[in-house]
Structure formats: structure tokens, C-alpha cells
Amino acid sequence: MISSETFHVVTTELVVGAFSVAGLSFTLCLLLHLGVLKQPSWSPVVDHVAHFTLAFGLAATPFAILSGLSSAPGEGLNSPILVNKMFLSMTGFGFALGCLLARWRLGNKVWSTTKSVVLHSASGLAAVGSMLLTASAGGTFARGESLLDMFHLPYEHVLLFPVMVSTIALLLGLTMLVLSWKRMNASSTVH
Amino acid sequence: MDLLLWDGGIELKTNYRILTVLVLSLLLLCSAFGAAEPGGNGDSIQNMQCGGACHGDASINETSGALLSLSSPAAIYVGIPTTLTLTATNLDTSATRLVGLFLLTDMTGHSDTPQDAGWEILSDANGGAMNYNEQKLDPGQTEISISWVLRASTLGPTTFYAAIHHGGGDSSPFFGTTASGFEVTVQPVPENLPRLSADFTPPTLRTLDIPTEFNIETQFTDSMQFEWKSEDGLIMNAIVNSTGNNSWTATIPAALQPTTVQWRVLLGGEGPEQTTPWFTLAAEEGSWEVTESAAYLQAFALLFMSAGIVIALQTRFSSDASTSKYDEELAEIKTVALDKTPGHFEENDGGQQA
Fold first, then answer.
1. Disulfide engineering: B166 pairs with which of A15, A142, B87, B99, CB 3.0-4.6 Å?
2. Percent of chain B surpassing pLDDT 70
3. Residue B73: other Cβ atoms inside 10 A
4. Other CB atoms closer than 10 Å to residue B258's CB: what's the count?
5. Do A102 and B315 form a contact (C-beta atoms < 8 A)?
């Protein structure tokens, strides 16, 4: 058996690598659909690459989170950086999940209007950004330095909501997911 | 893909191939700039060259010009803490001014820590108990001396080595070792020698703002003096109270900043008076705490909120588009259907003929 530290390194490399490619592909998608980049033949390729790599990174994310928690020194969430890492990775997970579900159920319609294109690309890029920030926080936690140190990100501070606010946000998020899912299913059945 | 099939595709293909090779070559060249970890790895138990990689990679590392030497007290007794001091001179580092120093018992890069040779590290220079210590040099500093407090569990000779990792002017990782081994011989303990209890383990960390009480167990000891010094080097005494036979307590004031202090005890008894090595005690902030259930709840709330917002907005924007597209398609179908109805066709046709 390999140690949780080694397993964490493997899974985070998978996540960061996959999300980085997804980020590049979503940027190209945005530029192509907004007409900034005049290469229409690239659209299907970058569309598929963006969503495949996002799905691959998403599949590896739970393993990275769990192995990260078990490989951290001490017990439980004993550092603000660890808590911020968890918040960032879960937020990124949510953005990626929403982006993939939308692409799956709505198909090419996500690229049908400018608003939709911008939103879909932004959600993909937000997922990528969150994951890369998580990786950066991991570097700060493990080695005391990371590539994004130049921005002086406040990893040492945790914005912890009251339990009531978190509960409401959780219920609200679940409600939005369920209603939107029904609406998407209805939409895909009609067409 | 299509690009390669355009007119003049052969030339384009070659250009793309050249570009790809250039980009890959550039990426390979860039790997040298990221060699090793200039920010350090933190103190830890490590084999020589951390068992390989970074400073151990013969293709990228360079030989350090640092001169390393080890020293120890003349007599070392089994089960009694002793000090090994490493002095490194002629130091030249990278901009981070970090050096990593190893205390080893052979040079194989595998199972070569003092623990592997039956020695226990009780204290290191940074307030831990690790054989690999990182030190940050002051600007212009070219020499450093650090100590480990160790306890031998077996009699006989042991050869110690020291090694160093650091950066340099360019991005190369530097590696150096002692020119030769430093042999120490562990002797049996003289009878009635006042000493610390065999299972006494000195504390290496304390929390800020809280006075530290030491509970020290000894053997063959009738009296004890407790000395401690902060980083300015001024030696102070703490009051020692006896709490029983060979059992003592002493208290030092609280640390207000995360600094280190060193302490030692002078033991008196029937045998010759003994002075322990200086043990290092680091002060750190109290452990950070968070209500874990609240943090996990918020994490899941963030997950579902972000996913929910994305899907809700995407559904709204896309369904707007689909409605209009649907309407357009419907209108188109109606037109086609009208065109294909016989009466309409004839009418149209007739119209054209006319």
C-alpha cells in the first residue's frame, strides 16, 4: 500500500493537469464562440476536450480531497489553509458539476447565445480557477511557497458562515439543482 | 486537424511540426529553472539527499563549496543525552538564503539516519527532533553552527556524517558532505553518575503566552540547578522544586513571540557533577481550531450553491435560446409544408410561369 501522502500527490497532479487543460480549452471555446478567434473548425474539438478534461478532473477531485485530509499532519482541520483548501475545492467541484450537467442535458444549446456562451465558459473557468487556487494553497501549506504568492492571497483567514446561513445556502443550492434539473429534463424531452 | 488539409497543407504541416518541436524544447529547457525547492522542505527525518531527487540528481546538481565539521564532547555514555555540533563554513546560497543540514550515520542514501544506527534524537536546533534542519542565513553570513542532542542506546563506536543542501547563484541545487566520517564511542555509564532518567524525553514545543513547567526525572541526583537562555544568549536560572526522590519541577516564563529558548540542568550527587546538553524549546502559537461540522456544512453548501447557480442560469439562458430557435424552426417547417402542398405548389408554379 502507498501512503496517503503519495496518493495525494498522484491525485492532485491528475486534478491540476486535467483542470489546466480544461481551462485552456474553455478559454478557446469562449474566444471561438464570441468570434474573437476565427477558427470555427476548432469548436467541436475544444468543446469536447474542455468537457472531457473537466469530467476527468472532477472524477479525481474526491480522491484528492480525501487523501489530502488524511495526509495532513495532526488530526482534522487544524489549519486555516486546510479549511480554505476544502472550501475552494468544493466550490470548484460545484462549478464543474454544474457546467458538466448543463452540457450533458442541454447539449449544444449552451453555445447558442452570447449570454449562454459567456456563462458556460465562465463556469468552466471558475471551476478551473478554484482548483488551481486550491493547488496553490496546498503548496503554501506543504512547502511554505507557491506560484501565486505574488498575489498575497489571504489563506490564513477563514470566512466561516454561521451554521444557519450554511444550512440555508445548502437547501437553496439543492432546491435550485432539483428545479433546474426538472426544467432541463422537460426541455430535453420536448426537443 | 482540418488545418493540415488546406491548400499548401504540406508546408503548413511542416511549420506546425517545427513549432511543436520548438515549444516542447522550450518546455524541457524550462524544467531546469524549477530544479529542487528553493523555499525549502521543512525539517524532517531524511536520508542523505532525501533518498534521491532534487539535490541528489547527478545530472543537475553541483558540488557545494561549504566545509562541514562535526564535534562532540570527549565522553559519551550510553543512555545519557549528548550534543553533536555541526559547523558549516564557506557558505554560499541562493537568494532565499536557506541551507538544509543533515546528520547521518552513513552515506548510502538509505537507512542512514541516526535512528537507524540506534540513536535517539531528543532535540534539534529548531525546536524539533529531526536529523534534517533548515536554517535561514542572515545577509552576508557565511558560517553557521547547529547542534543536535542525541542519546545512544548501545555501546561501541558510531561514525557520523553531515551533509548540506543549498541553492546558488544560478538555479542549480548544491550538495556537499563532510570530508570524512566523525567517529564517537559510546561508553558504559560510571556508577552513581547523576543523570537524567533513561526514559526522560525533553519537550521541544510550547505554546505562546503560557509559562512552561518542566517535570524532570533523574537518577542518582541529590540536587539540581536549572539554567535557560533566550536567543540573546543571557543565561538565567529558574527555581527548582523537588517533588520526590529524583523528581523535580522548574518553571520558565511564558514566551510572547514564536522564538526558541535553550535549557539545561546541572545535576549533583555522589558521583561527579554532570551538566546536560542544551535542549532547544520552540514556542509556537496555540493550535488553530475550527468547528469542523460548520466547516464541512459550509463546504457542501458552497458545492451545491455553485452547481445550482450555474445550472439555474444556464437553463434559463439556454431555454430562452431554444424557444426562439424552436419558433424559427417551426416557422421554417410551416413554410416548407406550405410549399409542398399541391395547390400551393401549382399556384407558385403558375405564378412563376406567368
1. B99
2. 81
3. 13
4. 11
5. yes
pLDDT in tens, B18-61: 888 888 888 776 655 555 677 777 888 888 888 776 777 766 77
Residues A107 and A103: their CA atoms lie apart, in Å, by 5
As given in the structure block, the three cell numbers for residue B273 are 557533577
Q: Decide: residue B327, CB within 10 A, 0-12 exposed, 13-18 middle, 19+ buried.
A: exposed
**Residue of chain B whose alpha carbon sits nearest to that of A46:** B1
Whole-number Å distance between alpha carbons of A138 and B296: 18
Residue B306 and residue A98: Cβ atoms within 8 Å?
A: yes
Q: Quick check: B274 and B264 in contact, CB under 8 A?
A: no
Closest CA to A153 of A137, A135, A139: A137
Cross-chain CB nearest to B307 (options A79, A169, A177): A177
Determine the pLDDT at residue B336. Answer: 52
Q: Is A4 exposed, middle or buried (0-12, 13-18, 19+ CB in 10 A)?
A: middle
Q: Model's pTM, two decimal places?
A: 0.55
pLDDT tier for residue B352 given thresholds of 50, 70 and 90: very low
Highest mean pLDDT, choosing among A121-135, A146-160, B44-58, B307-321: A121-135
Of B290, B300, B306, the CB nearest to A160: B290
Contact A95 B310 (CB under 8 A): yes
DSSP string, B42-102: -SB---GGGGSSGGG-TTT-EE---EEEEE--S-EETTS-EEEEEEEES----TT-EEEEE
- ipTM reported for the complex, 2 dp: 0.92
